[in-house]
């Protein structure tokens, strides 16, 4: 991985740890502030200062890591499970099943990711869950496409054909032989999709369509801090934004090292 | 005319460097055809590339290469370009890789004569047709307007030969020019190459893994193994009285009854 | 030509199916539209019935879909429930800003992304290192964060650009939209720069480029005709994908800069459940997305002679 890789892995680990331990290590309640404590600079009491509502920014970043990580986690888990299942099913059955699935995926590809998420939010109302579920659906075609093409190659190799000739069931062959071969792809794809999901979920929260205030979330914090930033108090927006940038960059670097964007089914 | 003396070439890796050529000395006189025979990976191609100074960026070359007394290894910029354009031409193994896939054949030939050798576009275009006829191509206009992917390997290699003789260079470097071709066209292309060379009185340094083929067209043969020239001599001498055991091995390993064998080996 | 017709038909099919899906989703949405219209006031059942009558809310689903679809095909997108305006008029007012924003951002991607990528690809050393680092970080910067940073530095701090609004007149508009376009294009430009760099490096080492040099073709020509030209084949696809992607990204940037584009209209409509507007914008975006992707493929077939024959086989 090299030194940059170690830094990237270390940073991601730190963020995950911060999110897990937020209830223990965060010095303040992230949602409660005090008007007398507005716009404090960094101090021993408030490591990173306070926001326009007098809330401790450090605590909010720690708690914000939770929703900022759970959202993408939901997305990549659902995407991996459904994308893989769809891809392997259509590879195994082939024929009509395969071409039907391809059509469905093409249809999903026709919608820009954010648009799909916003449509879901229009129907079900704004929340992190809605946003994450909708993005998962938007991402499934990317994962399914890559896994389908790899599995298709494996499908025609002798090692998957001969068990079939011996009368072993399709499900067994698929889970025992195909799945292990596409597993590395799934992991790399998930790493890269995690970054994309984090940015797009943060964008939805920024638009007021994802995580709802007063909950702490990095995207929401960037948006909340907009007025403060323009008034000359950049801490909240900039720190939350940096958290997103660094986490996504680190994940991108790790993903690139693992196998690259191609594994995530992204052309770009 | 061409005098290679004590040529060493090492490719720098991340931690260590790999010695590709070790104290290689080869001479080619005017009008003479000299063979360089060895297995793939023995350093034959790298020897040719050093003469044209197209060795990889991370290669370190020492020793001397002179062409009519001019120190080739010291050439830079315009003098190097003129040497490449006028004095030495090269025919590589795979014509599909040599021709730019998005440019038509006409432009390949015109580029060599106009942009490299300084002929006017008009005369270059006229001459392009003549050259193709010279290498035995029938439908000249159709071929000139074609793109590389529309032509067979044998046809393309003729185009490359046409380009290589266009400037009537004194020396032609040929790197396994028939190895990548269809078995049925190998002999034909080889004959055209040999005819053109004799007609124009060009010298040739001919690289091949095929000792028989080299014996058939060369005046002298160098046998190379692991970056070292182990033996030099006339074809008959190598056949009747090989000095080095490797030469003997090469002689013995020839497939009986086959003149030119086709191998799947890639570029070295 | 066959290829074009087939693709256009496929696009039309996708549009019909996706408009059906969008329409169905809105239809199935919990909560009834007339409640949004009366906004919680108590009104008599007669009034509600009148409203349902006026907006044909009681017709069966397929009748409503059919009416909507045929109206849309005639350019009538219906009425916005939230502000009782023709959706078509709303869109027409908002479209120029979004189009201009996407266009400017596309220019930034081509100039900055492809330009820097070529620069980094043909030069080794410091230029390359800087571009590589910049693109590695750049793709991770969310557009809305870039928007805030640019705004606070260049508008609030230095006062070079206006903070909000879309401006009037062409030059004023461009001036207002420069920062938004930069923010929108930044992550894409970063990715494009990196991919361009890689493509250039691969072409530099490609055998046809090396052999062109070996034939004595001047270095500048080799660079232009063989290295840059050929590397533009994969790059053009990537640029196209990213320009198509700008459409959705523009919502966020419009919102950050409070521009009066389709994006802010959509965000507002989503929040207010103004379904007529949401449907209309969704269909327009899907169409635009599909058309850009189609254009990219056509362009690619035009610049790569290998594509046409492969398809016709």
**Full CATH superfamily name of chain A:** MetI-like
Number of domains of chain A: 1
Unreliable spans of chain A: none
Briefly note the CATH topology name of chain B: Rossmann fold
**How does the major sheet of chain B shape up?**
6 strands, mixed
Q: Assign a percent range to the helix content of chain B.
A: 25-40%
Greatest contact pair?
A: A-C, 45 and 56 residues
Please give the CATH architecture of chain A: Orthogonal Bundle
Query: Whole-number average pLDDT of chain B?
Result: 87
Number of H- or I-type helical stretches of chain A: 10
Explain briefly what this protein structure is:
The complex is a heterotrimer of chains A (268), B (268) and C (313). Chain A has helices spanning 2-25, 57-93, 95-109, 113-124, 128-155, 158-165, 170-206, 218-224, 226-231, 235-258. Chain A has 268 residues and is mostly helical.
SSE layout and pairings?
The complex is a heterotrimer of chains A (268), B (268) and C (313).
Chain A (H helix, E strand, L loop, with lengths): L1 H24 L31 H37 L1 H15 L3 H12 L3 H28 L2 H8 L4 H37 L11 H7 L1 H6 L3 H24 L10
Chain B lengths: L1 E11 L4 E12 L4 E5 L6 H8 L7 E9 L2 E2 L5 H11 E4 L3 H4 L6 H12 L4 H14 L5 H5 L8 H14 L4 E5 L7 H18 L2 E6 L2 H7 L2 E6 L2 E6 L1 H6 L4 H8 L16
Parallel strand pairs in B: 3-8, 3-9, 6-7, 7-8
Antiparallel strand pairs in B: 1-2, 1-4, 4-5, 9-10
Chain C lengths: L1 H27 L4 H6 L6 H10 L6 H13 L13 H36 L3 H13 L4 H15 L12 H35 L2 H8 L4 H38 L5 H11 L2 H29 L1 H8 L1
Helix pairs in contact in C: 1-12, 5-6, 5-8, 5-10, 6-8, 7-8, 7-10, 8-10, 9-10, 10-11, 10-12, 11-12, 12-13
Task: Explain the overall architecture.
The complex is a heterotrimer of chains A (268), B (268) and C (313). Chain A is an all-alpha fold. Chain A has a single domain (2-22, 52-267), classed as Orthogonal Bundle (MetI-like fold), CATH 1.10.3720.10. Chain A has ten helices and no strands. The two termini of chain A are 23 Å apart. The mean pLDDT of chain A is 84. With 268 residues, chain B is of the alpha/beta class. Chain B has one domain (2-252): Rossmann fold, CATH 3.40.50.300. Chain B is built from eleven helices and ten strands. A six-stranded mixed sheet of chain B has the order 6-7-8-3-9-10, sandwiched between helices. A four-stranded antiparallel sheet of chain B has the order 2-1-4-5, with helices on one face. With 313 residues, chain C is an all-alpha fold. Helices cover 80% and strands 0% of the residues of chain C. Chain C has 13 helices and no strands. The two termini of chain C are 14 Å apart. In chain C, 43% of the residues are buried. Chain B: One of its GO terms (cellular component) is plasma membrane. Chain B: It is found in: Cell membrane. Chain B: Residues 4-251 form the ABC transporter domain. Chain B: Keywords: ATP-binding, Cell inner membrane, Cell membrane, Membrane, Nucleotide-binding, Translocase, Transport. Chain B: Belongs to the ABC transporter superfamily.
């Amino acid at each position: 991985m090299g030194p940059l890789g170690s830094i990237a892995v270390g940073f991601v680990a730190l963020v995950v740890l911060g999110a897990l331990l937020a209830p223990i290590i965060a010095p303040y309640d992230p949602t409660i502030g005090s008007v007398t404590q507005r716009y404090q600079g960094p101090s021993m009491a408030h490591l990173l200062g306070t926001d326009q509502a007098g809330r401790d920014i450090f605590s909010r970043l720690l708690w914000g890591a939770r929703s900022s990580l759970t959202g993408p986690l939901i997305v990549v888990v659902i995407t991996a499970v459904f994308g893989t299942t769809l891809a392997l099913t259509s590879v195994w059955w082939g024929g009509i099943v395969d071409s039907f699935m391809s059509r469905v995926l093409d249809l999903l590809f026709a919608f820009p990711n954010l648009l799909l998420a916003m449509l879901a939010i229009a129907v079900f109302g704004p929340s992190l869950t809605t946003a994450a579920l909708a993005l998962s659906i938007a991402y499934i075609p990317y994962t399914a496409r890559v896994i389908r093409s790899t599995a298709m190659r494996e499908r025609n190799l002798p090692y998957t054909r001969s068990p079939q000739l011996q009368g072993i069931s399709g499900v067994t062959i698929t889970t025992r032989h195909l799945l292990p071969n596409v597993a590395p792809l799934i992991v790399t794809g998930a790493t890269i999709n995690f970054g994309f999901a984090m940015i797009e979920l943060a964008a939805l929260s920024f638009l007021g369509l994802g995580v709802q205030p007063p909950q702490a979330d990095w995207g929401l914090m960037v948006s909340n801090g907009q007025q403060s930033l323009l008034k000359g108090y950049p801490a909240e927006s900039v720190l939350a934004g940096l958290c997103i940038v660094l986490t996504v960059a680190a994940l991108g670097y790790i993903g690139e090292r693992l196998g690259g964007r191609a594994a995530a089914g992204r052309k770009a | 005319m061409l005098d290679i003396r004590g040529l060493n070439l090492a490719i720098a890796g991340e931690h260590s460097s790999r010695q590709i050529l070790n104290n290689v000395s080869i001479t080619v006189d005017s009008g003479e055809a000299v063979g360089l025979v060895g297995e793939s990976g023995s350093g034959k191609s790298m020897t040719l590339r050093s003469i044209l100074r197209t060795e990889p960026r991370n290669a370190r070359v020492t020793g001397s290469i002179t062409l009519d007394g001019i120190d080739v290894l010291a050439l830079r910029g315009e003098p190097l370009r003129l040497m490449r354009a006028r004095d030495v031409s090269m025919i590589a193994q795979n014509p599909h890789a040599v021709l730019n896939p998005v440019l038509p054949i006409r432009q390949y030939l015109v580029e060599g004569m106009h942009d490299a050798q300084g002929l006017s576009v008009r005369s270059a275009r006229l001459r392009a047709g003549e050259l193709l006829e010279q290498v035995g191509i029938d439908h000249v206009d159709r071929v000139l307007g074609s793109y590389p992917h529309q032509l067979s390997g044998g046809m393309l290699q003729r185009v490359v030969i046409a380009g290589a003789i266009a400037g009537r260079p004194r020396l032609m470097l040929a790197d396994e020019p028939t190895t990548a071709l269809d078995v049925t066209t190998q002999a034909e292309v080889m004959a055209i190459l040999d005819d053109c060379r004799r007609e124009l009185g060009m010298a040739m340094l001919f690289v091949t893994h095929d000792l028989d083929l080299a014996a058939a067209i060369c005046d002298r043969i160098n046998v190379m193994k692991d970056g070292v020239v182990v033996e030099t001599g006339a074809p008959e001498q190598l056949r009747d009285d090989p000095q080095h055991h490797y030469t003997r091995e090469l002689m013995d390993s020839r497939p009986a009854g086959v003149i030119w064998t086709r191998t799947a080996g890639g570029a070295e | 030509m066959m290829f074009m017709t087939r693709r256009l038909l496929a696009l039309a099919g996708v549009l019909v199916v996706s408009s059906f899906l969008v329409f169905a989703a809105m239809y199935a949405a919990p909560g009834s539209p007339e409640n949004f219209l009366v906004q919680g006031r108590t009104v008599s059942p007669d009034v509600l019935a009148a409203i349902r009558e006026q907006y044909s809310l009681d017709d069966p689903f397929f009748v409503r879909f059919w009416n909507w679809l045929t109206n849309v095909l005639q350019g009538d997108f219906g009425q916005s429930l939230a502000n009782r305006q023709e959706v078509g008029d709303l869109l027409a007012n908002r479209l120029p800003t979004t189009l201009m924003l996407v266009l400017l951002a596309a220019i930034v991607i081509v100039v900055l992304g492809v330009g820097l990528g070529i620069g980094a690809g043909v030069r080794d050393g410091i230029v390359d290192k800087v571009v590589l680092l910049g693109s590695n970080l750049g793709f991770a910067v969310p557009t809305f964060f870039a928007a805030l940073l640019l705004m606070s530095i260049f508008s609030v701090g230095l006062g070079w650009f206006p903070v909000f609004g879309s401006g009037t007149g062409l030059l004023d508009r461009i001036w207002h939209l420069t920062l938004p376009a930069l923010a929108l294009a930044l992550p894409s430009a970063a990715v494009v720069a990196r991919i361009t760099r890689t493509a250039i490096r691969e072409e530099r080492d490609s055998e046809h480029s090396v052999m062109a040099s070996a034939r004595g073709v001047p270095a500048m020509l080799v660079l232009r005709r063989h290295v840059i030209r050929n590397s533009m084949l994969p790059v053009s696809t990537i640029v196209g994908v990213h320009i198509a992607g700008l459409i959705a990204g523009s919502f966020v940037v419009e919102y950050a800069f409070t521009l009066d584009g389709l994006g802010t209209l959509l965000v507002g409509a989503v929040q207010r459940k103004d379904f007529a507007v949401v449907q209309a914008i969704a269909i327009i975006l899907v169409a635009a997305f599909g058309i850009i992707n189609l254009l990219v493929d056509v362009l690619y077939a035009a610049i790569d002679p290998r594509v046409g024959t492969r398809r016709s086989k």
